[in-house]
Amino acid sequence: MSLNYLDFEKKIAEFDEKIDGLRRVNQGAGLDLSMEEEIANLREKSLEMTRSIFSELSASQVAQLARHPLRPHTTDYIKEIFTDFDELCGDRAFADDAAIIGGTARLNDQPVMIIGQQKGRDTAEKVRRNFGMPKPEGYRKALRLMEMAERFKMPILTFIDTAGAYPGLGAEERGQSEAIAKNLLVMSRLQVPIICTIIGEGGSGGALAIGVGDRVNMLQYSIYSVISPEGCASILWQSAEYAAAAAEAMGVTAERVKSLDLIDDIIEEPIGGAHRSPADAAKGIKQKIMDQLAVLQTMKPDELIEARYQKLMSYGYC
Amino acid sequence: MNWIEKILPKTKSSRRRNIPEGVWTQCKSCNATIYHQEMQKLLGVCPKCEHHNKVSARERLTFFLDEGIEAELGEELEPQDVLKFKDIKKYKDKISIAQKKTKEKDALVVMKGKVKGAPVVACAFEYGFMGGSMGAVVGARFIKAVEACLEENIPLVCFAASGGARMQEALMSLMQMAKTSAGLAKMREKGLPYISVMTHPTYGGVSASLAMLGDVNIAEPKALIGFAGPRVIEQTIRQTLPEGFQRSEFLLEHGAIDMIVDRREMRDTIARLIQKFMYHVSDEKSATA
């Protein structure tokens, strides 16, 4: 089975293999109309199968999709959605953290500041980007760019995709906790609109550190959680093998998170997940951001900050 | 009635008199056996080795504040099992066990009072309540503390002791990090001081929000403080961590905190700090002007 298919997609893979096989034969033998019909038939069945499997995914299956090796990353969406992207680097104090990328771009004509976590695609890039797990310098770069956006009246758009903030020796030495905390504090008062979109994994404080906004969106098959399902399982079940149960119990899916009013909107993904058609996934994100920005840009800075504050105060049951 | 009498349990008198555990207490560090009452007088600081043993949230606030606490804030708030969370045990059962054990409804206690005459709101985490974990009630009580400060123009002091966010409240507990930090941002805008005291241990979501955001960050000696726990870091980097890693002294050296303060000096130190920070709005200034 190719990397394209997860274990629960086995039946879809079988259909798709058959379709590919038939197509190869048909190309060799010249056009055969009955075979074309057969292919169309199979494709319809494959789609139907996909729809049915995807209509009842478990939380841990959604987590698999959120971490899919082919899932579009921040840079993929930047290319699809924006123009004139100029990457801006460094925290001006210690280093440039490649696990977070940021920079200015245009959304249609509107200049915006983009900040997002980046996991890396091949092994070399993954290592360079520390698998998308930011260190304090990454969060401090993000903070620098957000404060810059405020000065130049640019809306801030963040793309969240991280297993979490990096748990390493250097990260602790340089104040991982403080870096995250400071972002939470500053983001709550920034005078420009902030729209946060979880595109893959929203892992704990490491995700939240660029996740305080006027609107928070989740892609349909992204996850957002206080701790990874594996981490939760190893603490509460005393074994990481219970990760699926932990994912279910914590309710990491967009649907569950939305039902608790902890996010604003769910952005639908192409059938089979964003990686099946990154361009379509990007279209959905772009439309949502444009709609939300249109509303937020009518608000005065004071109103914006007050509404954001009230939203933050509403989190919880008391 | 002095503060010790106030915090000693009233009901446990005669029946338990002959049970040694209630009379004696053992230092967690040097194992010295000390009279429980003596240890309480010493605020849990061992007279033999100076180890800062754990004290309850209520004990801490009662010692920290002047006699005559004005009000407890947010005591009406109770934890709820919104997610019907169940691991090996039900969250609901864990709540009732923790409540029975600690006599607290949740892991944060907030009180309004005075420190050496200066009005203040002080809160303390109860580590005995599910590891001092932060869920919706902790967040809401912290915001009550912040709101009281904003309303009356007074400083906030927080004693943290927590393993982090409360997993049983899932993403709702993560959001308490953003909620409490947003409250503190308002304190800053209004020029009201916030003193954060980190005690052993302070980790995860509490460390990465309200605990690290003090105008002054204070730690008790030898407290373990960090974002990720030592075990997680060792598993990630596959090497043994250096001696003293994540201790208060390590944090001071790396610039994360302003000072390490012995528990017996805490009240004096914080009173001195907030009097200076509040000078610009105080009677003291108008008297000398």
Number of strands of chain B: 9
What pair of chains forms the biggest interface? A-B, 56 and 61 residues
Low-confidence spans of chain A:
none
Largest sheet of chain A, in brief, is: 8 strands, mixed
Strand neighbour order, sheet with most strands of chain B: 3-4-5-6-7-8-9
Order of helix and strand elements from N to C terminus of chain B: HHEEHHEHEEHEHEHEHHEHH
Average predicted local confidence, pLDDT of chain B: 92
Distance between the termini of chain B: 39 Å
Cα(first) to Cα(last) distance of chain A is: 49 Å
- Overall mean pLDDT of chain A stands at 95
Instruction: Please tally the helical runs of chain B, counting DSSP H or I stretches of 4 or more residues.
Output: 12
Structural class of chain A: alpha/beta
Instruction: Determine the fraction of residues in helical runs of chain B and give it as a percent range.
Output: 25-40%
- Low-confidence runs of chain B: 11-19
For the structure shown, list the relevant keywords.
A: alpha/beta, 14 helices, 8 strands, 49% helix, globular, B: 289 residues, alpha/beta, two-stranded antiparallel ribbon, 12 helices
Give a verbal description of the structure.
The complex is a heterodimer of chains A (318) and B (289). Helices cover 49% and strands 15% of the residues of chain A. Chain A has helices at residues 10-29, 33-54, 59-66, 74-81, 123-128, 136-151, 169-173, 176-187, 204-208, 229-237, 243-250, 254-259, 278-296, 301-313; strands at 83-87, 100-107, 110-117, 156-162, 194-203, 215-219, 223-225, 265-267. In chain A, helix 9 links the parallel strand 5 and strand 6 (215-219). In chain A, helix 1 (10-29) runs antiparallel to helix 2 and helix 6 (136-151) packs parallel to helix 8 (176-187). The model of chain A has no long low-confidence stretch (mean pLDDT 95). In chain B, helix 6 (136-152) packs parallel to helix 7 (170-189). In chain B, strand 6, helix 7 and strand 7 form a beta-alpha-beta unit. Chain B is built from twelve helices and nine strands. Chain B has helices at 3-7, 20-23, 36-41, 57-64, 91-102, 136-152, 170-189, 204-207, 230-237, 248-253, 266-277, 283-288; strands at residues 24-26, 33-35, 71-73, 108-115, 118-125, 156-162, 194-202, 216-219, 259-260. The chains are: A alpha/beta (318), B alpha/beta (289). Chains A and B meet through helix 7, helix 8, helix 9, helix 10 and helix 11 of A and helix 6, helix 7, helix 8 and helix 9 of B.
